[in-house]
Specification:
Chain lengths: 292, 321
């Protein structure tokens, strides 16, 4: 190879950004997908639903980024960054769909950078402080098992864009869950100390799991039209997965999920979301006229 | 390349030494199972592990901006880039391990401050323009340094460099593309870019190491085919390539002595502050202590996780026996 040519080629003209390494795969994921709204579906409702799923991914990705340069091993830096990148990709597609569906034409950045905390629709488990590595594993185990169950069904959504995003996301989420399962086993069945910490992390995360299975009225309406998936419908599957994993990891079998309560989906968040968003939005808001 | 006979270590078989010399002379690769002089092995261990450490420490100045990247596209690009650096560190530690050292030991040497990494990463990144300038100048200088290493005499290092250089070229382009966008933006953005160029230009020139006259190891490393070009040659090449890019971008490189010399067919340029380079290498840079302590903290906090993984693997192994 001639790296000298790579270097000097920098000032040559390129066609758009099609030749860039990054940032192009996301739009191609939806190439050829029909973006018209399915008949009878309320665009404003679909936009909010896309924000729910998109905000879960965006906020969880932002939390995972905190492990970059701070993970227990280099392989974990690579893996966690990779998972954060997958979720960020899902968030971008979903937020872009939200802007199409509600007719405003807002782009992904308008949603990510110019909404306030009460306008975010993510579940509170995604915004919880990152904690230690066992917490990261416990959170990822729960969220990826749940989201995989949802996305598997959403691949048949009546909205062709949501269906395409979900179909792409299924493979990613299956890997996220596999990664979380592998570490749940290692920590649960590793040393007595790691067992204790993994058990404590599951116990800490558990109270926030009820919200994952709560059905928001908007989800119920869209589920009736075949666009959304009612989260209550994946309850048994997710519980079964978690029971099998935790048991294999020599950890206590999980209790029943706590009572399902809608909170983040209605913009009711913990005190942890505002600082997370403040950091995410800081540079963009400091330079409102800028182009990046 | 001149191939003077190497000084054989005491007790080394002269025939093996002759075979090694012939291999270097013929521009053939030395592979891990081949006999090699102890000093060659030691020099490579130092160079490859310092390179690996640089990739890992180099994640920090840019990693700090992932959380606040000003668009989701920029966030994805930067996250992917910083992830690549971790991957580069992994290839390079693997290449170093083929020389008979242990990655854990190299990590210990890094976090105890017994081994160096590129001094460039001891400077702070103060604005989002730094992300672009690090890509353009710092990765650009790294490419200048590293492309010749794709032809270096030790096989595993050369092969790792081929892959790394491909990714580095994307890193550089994303940096330059960010700067182009910023220069087309607001006046404030253009000021940010110029400020970042002012701060990173001289440290980038220092990345090629001290002047040839003060680089005692260069001759031996070139004889061994570990190093292909001298520090000053690479620095000159970097300056000559960068000047037109700066013009296209519309920024000023902060060197009043920088001028085209038609007689030499190259640019003349000022002298970097070599005392500053020495100070930063010795550990007295703006961020030395913080960079190493962050890596050390991550490593120490993660000890129980690594112990658990080892214990689990042992149990699995015992169960299958």
């Amino acid at each position: 190879m001639s790296g000298e040519n790579i270097f000097t080629g920098l000032t040559e003209e390129h066609d758009g950004d099609a030749r860039w390494a990054f940032g192009t795969g996301f739009t191609e994921a939806l190439a050829g997908v029909d973006t018209t709204l399915p008949a009878g579906v309320d665009g404003a409702d679909l936009a909010v639903y896309c924000q729910m799923l998109g905000d879960d991914a965006l906020v969880q990705s932002q939390r995972l980024v905190q492990w970059v340069t701070d993970a227990p091993e280099l392989e974990e830096e690579v893996a966690l960054a990779n998972i954060a990148l997958d979720l960020l990709g899902q968030a971008r597609l979903l937020l872009a769909r939200a802007g199409q569906a509600d007719g405003t034409g807002r782009d992904e950045d308008a949603f990510a950078y110019h909404r306030d905390p009460a306008q975010f629709r993510n579940v509170r488990l995604t915004e919880a402080p990152r904690g230690d590595f066992a917490h990261a594993v416990a959170t990822l185990l729960v969220l990826s098992s749940w989201r995989l169950a949802l996305f598997t069904r959403l691949a048949d959504s009546a909205d062709p864009v949501v269906a395409a995003i979900a179909a792409k996301g299924v493979n990613e989420l299956a890997y996220h869950r596999e990664y979380a399962v592998a570490w749940t086993l290692r920590l649960g069945d590793g040393t007595p100390y790691s067992h204790e910490r993994m058990a404590a992390a599951i116990a800490d995360v558990w109270p926030l799991t009820g919200e994952l299975l709560a059905t928001h009225p908007l989800e119920a309406a869209l589920a009736a039209q075949g666009v959304a998936v009612d989260p209550a419908s994946v309850r048994d599957e997710v519980h079964d997965v978690l029971t099998r994993v935790l048991t294999a990891a020599t950890l206590p079998a999980p209790e029943a999920f706590p009572r399902p309560v809608v909170a983040g989906r209605d913009g009711e968040h913990s005190e942890h979301l505002a600082p997370l968003l403040e950091e995410l939005q800081s540079v963009a808001r400091e330079h409102p006229e800028a182009t990046w | 390349m001149p191939t003077t006979a190497q000084e054989a270590p005491p007790g080394a078989d002269e025939a093996l030494q002759a075979e090694f010399d012939a291999r270097i002379a013929a521009n053939q690769r030395v592979e891990p199972r081949d006999w090699m002089p102890e000093a060659y092995r030691r020099t490579l261990v130092r160079q490859v592990s310092q390179h690996a450490h640089s990739e890992i420490i180099g994640m920090q100045p840019e990693g700090d901006w992932i959380a606040s990247a000003p668009s989701l596209r920029r966030k994805a690009i930067l996250l992917a880039k910083v992830q690549d650096e971790a991957g580069h560190g992994l290839y390079l530690y693997a290449a170093a391990e083929t020389l008979g050292v242990d990655r854990n030991d190299l990590t210990e040497r890094l976090i105890e401050g017994r081994q160096k990494y590129s001094s460039i990463f001891n400077y702070p990144s103060l604005s989002y323009a730094d992300v672009g300038v690090i890509g353009w100048l710092v990765d650009g200088a790294a490419i200048c340094n590293q492309v010749p290493l794709c032809r270096t005499s030790f096989g595993p290092y050369a092969r790792a460099m081929v892959r790394i250089c491909k990714e580095e070229s994307f890193h550089q382009r994303q940096g330059y593309e960010l700067l182009m966008r910023m220069m087309e933006g607001t006046e404030g953005q253009r000021r940010m870019v110029q400020d970042a160029v002012d701060r990173w230009w001289w440290p980038s020139l220092m990345m090629f190491g001290p002047p040839d006259a003060d680089s005692p190891n260069t001759r031996q490393s070139m004889t061994w085919g570990i190093k292909i070009d001298t520090n000053d040659d690479l620095r000159q090449r970097f300056v000559d390539m960068t000047v037109p890019q700066a013009e296209k971008l519309g920024v000023t490189l902060p060197d009043p002595e920088l001028v085209w010399n038609p007689e030499r067919g190259q640019h003349d340029f000022g002298t970097p502050d070599w005392d500053e380079l020495k100070r930063v290498i010795k550990g007295d840079g703006p961020k030395n202590a913080e960079r190493v302590s962050r890596r050390r903290a991550a490593h120490e906090k993660g000890a129980w996780v690594r112990e658990a993984a080892t214990a689990y693997a042992r149990k699995q192994q015992e169960a299958t026996v």
